[in-house]
Amino acid sequence: MEEVEVELLKLIENNANLEVEKIAKLMGKSIDETRELIDKLEKKKVILGYSTLIDWAKVLNEEEVTAMVDVKVTPARDVGFDKVAERIYRFPEVKAVYLMSGTYDLSVSVKGKTMMEIGHFISEKLSALDSVLSTTTHFVLKKYKHDGIILQDADEGDKRIVVSP
Amino acid sequence: MSQISYISKQVADLKPSGIRRFFDLAAQMEDVISLGVGEPDFVTPWNVIEQSFHSLEQGYTSYTENAGMMELRQEISKYLSGSYHLTYDPSDQLIVSVGASQAIDLALRAVIDPGDEVIVVEPSFVAYVPTVRLAGGIPVTVQTEAEDEFKLKPEQIEEAITSKTKAIILCNPNNPTGTLLLQEELEQLAIVIEKHNLLVLSDEIYAELTYDDAYTSFPTVPKMKERTILISGFSKAFAMTGWRLGYAAGPTEIIAAMVKIHQYTMMCAPTMAQHAALEAMKNGRQSVESMFESYKQRRNFIVSSLNEIGLQCPNPGGAFYAFPSIKATGLTSAEFAEQLLQEEQVAVVPGSVFGANGEGYIRCSYATSLKQLDEALNRMKRFVQKRM
């Protein structure tokens, strides 16, 4: 991957709504060159989407519950864990699936409106899959940091004096 | 009853910093976007902050050696050797100071006798002229020109030299212009410096922040190491301005003289800050690189935006300042800065505070978030359009 491509990716990683004009200026490139770079990275599926990180805990009536589920599974012949992982990640309730080393096989992040909703999903859909041997569910009580972004209301304002040497 | 002033003539004659005066004005206003700040907008990397807590927990709350912790001096020596192939003996050629500012003060007091002249290249950092005066010296200013990209030419030094000239202060990359002097330009200056046997105070605090061309540390220029006091610190590269930690490297005799003054006036730099700096030196490279990348992008952004607005601005090679011309507005730099602050709540520093040739320019620091920078430039555009 070229250096400019990496530079562009770093720029938009935490700021997906940065306009092309600004990206171009920051990188010292023309707008056309920048647009071309973005297109190329989208086509190569390096850029897969542009998401927004929202602290739903702050939105009235829009709270959600997250659970991290440790799943033990029976791997299938030839495809190992991939097949069962696919069965699981296709569910819209499932936000992330990772193959893990250690005492369980898959770490599954599940989101729902209530604990009850998540409970139903795990007992009726996830545990019911043939290759799933067991599940252990951990509900997230509070989020402090997500994807490198600190969610607390710490005062991160500019503490510098207005004019300094 | 007659009025007696207890203030020394030396201090009474010092003019207050132009920046301070402007700061007082800006401080009274609300919602000011500041491009007037000469320090990183980043907070010190967490591992560095954490290390200072750890050092306190471990009970490191007492003095260190006058010249600074040996371990820190060894790391600084390793850094200078690794980055510039400069060899300084940590035992007697390095001193850890309370910021690079104190290192400048110590260096000048160590070498200046009353009446000695020191060449200061303007536009310059606001502290050089006063610290020369406080050391009993006479500052002789040399004005670099915008058409030379504010680069000092050897003949300018030659013209300023008298029989009393003892030293010259170089700041590379320069605050406030961002001008970077390249190796061959430094070599040309070195010829005159050697010919007239001058001592050089090389302020290299912004050395880590050079964007397009390779950086040359002045003592690496042939025959210059033995006549140069290299001054640097942790403030800019590691975002550690408030920790007040700098250092100087130079010939044994001069460093010994600096340590002598330091031990009577300061004892040593704060211990917890020295521990933090040690961590910064050992494990801080990644933070420096990521901050550097941001500065470079913002430099590109501010320079191209200023030129679009109509404020002619060359591409600065280093530091985190843009120094655009505001001559097209017909205002003086002080008028421009004051009116911009009153009308659009954007703080910039008038170029005139950095010396006579700074008139017609303003210093805009781009060590601020892209969001703030973008908004400040929108406001400046509105302001400039009314006047051009």
TrEMBL record, chain A:
<keyword id="KW-0238">DNA-binding</keyword>
<dbReference type="InterPro" id="IPR036388">
    <property type="entry name" value="WH-like_DNA-bd_sf"/>
</dbReference>
<feature type="domain" description="HTH asnC-type">
    <location>
        <begin position="1"/>
        <end position="82"/>
    </location>
</feature>
<protein>
    <submittedName>
        <fullName>Lrp/AsnC family transcriptional regulator</fullName>
    </submittedName>
</protein>
<dbReference type="Pfam" id="PF01037">
    <property type="entry name" value="AsnC_trans_reg"/>
</dbReference>
<dbReference type="InterPro" id="IPR000485">
    <property type="entry name" value="AsnC-type_HTH_dom"/>
</dbReference>
<keyword id="KW-0175">Coiled coil</keyword>
<keyword id="KW-0805">Transcription regulation</keyword>
<dbReference type="InterPro" id="IPR019887">
    <property type="entry name" value="Tscrpt_reg_AsnC/Lrp_C"/>
</dbReference>
<dbReference type="InterPro" id="IPR050684">
    <property type="entry name" value="HTH-Siroheme_Decarb"/>
</dbReference>
<feature type="coiled-coil region">
    <location>
        <begin position="1"/>
        <end position="44"/>
    </location>
</feature>
<dbReference type="InterPro" id="IPR011008">
    <property type="entry name" value="Dimeric_a/b-barrel"/>
</dbReference>
<dbReference type="InterPro" id="IPR019888">
    <property type="entry name" value="Tscrpt_reg_AsnC-like"/>
</dbReference>
<dbReference type="InterPro" id="IPR036390">
    <property type="entry name" value="WH_DNA-bd_sf"/>
</dbReference>
<keyword id="KW-0804">Transcription</keyword>
TrEMBL record, chain B:
<dbReference type="Pfam" id="PF00155">
    <property type="entry name" value="Aminotran_1_2"/>
</dbReference>
<dbReference type="GO" id="GO:0008483">
    <property type="term" value="F:transaminase activity"/>
</dbReference>
<dbReference type="InterPro" id="IPR004838">
    <property type="entry name" value="NHTrfase_class1_PyrdxlP-BS"/>
</dbReference>
<protein>
    <recommendedName>
        <fullName>Aminotransferase</fullName>
        <ecNumber>2.6.1.-</ecNumber>
    </recommendedName>
</protein>
<comment type="similarity">
    <text>Belongs to the class-I pyridoxal-phosphate-dependent aminotransferase family.</text>
</comment>
<feature type="domain" description="Aminotransferase class I/classII large">
    <location>
        <begin position="31"/>
        <end position="379"/>
    </location>
</feature>
<dbReference type="InterPro" id="IPR015422">
    <property type="entry name" value="PyrdxlP-dep_Trfase_small"/>
</dbReference>
<keyword id="KW-0808">Transferase</keyword>
<dbReference type="InterPro" id="IPR015421">
    <property type="entry name" value="PyrdxlP-dep_Trfase_major"/>
</dbReference>
<keyword id="KW-0663">Pyridoxal phosphate</keyword>
<dbReference type="InterPro" id="IPR004839">
    <property type="entry name" value="Aminotransferase_I/II_large"/>
</dbReference>
<dbReference type="InterPro" id="IPR050596">
    <property type="entry name" value="AspAT/PAT-like"/>
</dbReference>
<dbReference type="InterPro" id="IPR015424">
    <property type="entry name" value="PyrdxlP-dep_Trfase"/>
</dbReference>
<keyword id="KW-0032">Aminotransferase</keyword>
